[in-house]
Amino acid sequence: MIQFLLNESLRTEQHLDPNMTVLNYLRTVVHKTGTKEGCASGDCGACTVVVGELEDGQLRYRTLNSCLTFVSALHGKQLIAVDDLKSGDQLHSVQQALADCHGSQCGFCTPGFVMSLFALQKNSSGYDKEETLEALAGNLCRCTGYRPIIDAAVQVCENRTPDQFDAAEAQTIERLQAIAPSKVAELSDGNKRCMIPQTIGELAEAYSASPDAHLLAGGTDLALEVTQFHRELPVMIYVGHVKEMQRIEEFDDRIEIGSATSLTDCYDALAREFPDFGELLHRFASLQIRNQGTLGGNIGNASPIGDSPPLLIALNASIVLRKGDQTRTLPLEDFFLDYKKTDRQPSEFIEKVIVPRAGKYQFRAYKISKRLDDDISAVCAAINLHIDGGIVKDARIAFGGMAAIPKRASACEQVLIGADWNDAAIESACAALAQDFSPLTDFRASKEYRMSTAQNLLRKYFLELQSPTTETRVTAYV
After folding, report:
1. Alpha-carbon separation of residue 158 from 50, 98, 111, 342 (angstroms)
2. Can you tell me the mean pLDDT for 319-344?
3. Which secondary-structure segment (H or E) carries 447?
4. Structure pTM?
5. H or E element, residue 366
6. Does residue 443 sit in helix, strand or coil?
7. CB count, 10 Å around CB of 94?
8. DSSP H helical segments within 137-262, as ranges?
9. Are 320 and 336 in contact (CB under 8 A)?
10. Structure confidence at residue 374 (pLDDT)
11. Sheet of strand 214-216, all strands in order from the earlier edge strand to the far edge
């Protein structure tokens, strides 16, 4: 049984298909049809909803793609859809602003924009252009252009007025506290089921008992099995309530990040230590995806074009894998074996990620994609060198999009280690990349483009370190 608030109404669900998305739940079970399906893959934002949950006793609102969110992820939370914003005959201030600014034409994308603006209004203290662009980057409009939508954002953020959600906030917090999960829950339709453990011990026990289960964290990749490939997931284990796997702990020599920590929550710790990691996270899909997707999930799905693994490999990160009561620590570069194949054993899961501090290394990351925001990499490069006295003392260089797995450029590194830090060394290192990779050609880029790009990114790193005051940090894209 799961419980959650649908706006202010308590919903209790026990006999429900756990493969059902929040989008389909809204439209077919509770008949709130304002939320629309645009792409069913998290690309367009038309299905955006807002989820409220407690954080240190306070209510936090976040946008999610309802097409990629399974209903089990709502357990203990509040779901707000576009149908809930109107109060009596009065439009919400966000809805009114879009009407005032002529921010809607065909109207299909409008519900998603409304919900992204609603969350932006709740989380901001005034209009900020960069915050607004980030909040709306995951919402696509094909009719009006974005200027009137930005005008609406200015209006709702600069002239914020209290709404019914502000008036009910104390009551909402109290009700969420009353339904806060405290024991293992399960959602099942009799054939398919999803277990929802609360502790890492309960997770390990459930996974040992059901080694074929799919682990569900953010679901931004797993949900595509249902929405795009129309497959059934007989058994899932949702890890979103395992607090031990959502911790971020900072030590003198390392940062430890629980694998179920959302990419949004990872941002502060990683960006402080590695500014380029923060830059890349801003371009990691959309805010809706980052609010759901987890660091462990981005590693565990073993995509050769995942954004975080090349960076983590270059930073010499390791992962802690757990099975039952046993754990083992593995360098991340050894986790990936072949395309979508990893060293993870049956019933074993990623517990946390360990990232060493920057120290004397100089780290840069580059993402090359056809679109600046909300796009998949053609090439992702991470370069991390220790240079002392004009000599390269150590080098860790990793790429995504260049092989079947995220992979280190070992031959390139060996050319650099011990060499003078100069043009000749860089050119030799660029040539060595041909020994490390034989990239493929696909619809994102040709093999020739990928190799040329990887070499040019190495040259770019050299130029940035030679002339640190020169602005070269604007990432190129195809």
Report:
1. 21, 14, 21, 49
2. 97
3. helix 447-466
4. 0.94
5. strand 362-368
6. coil
7. 27
8. 147-158, 164-167, 169-178, 200-209, 224-227
9. no
10. 80
11. 185-188, 193-196, 235-238, 214-216
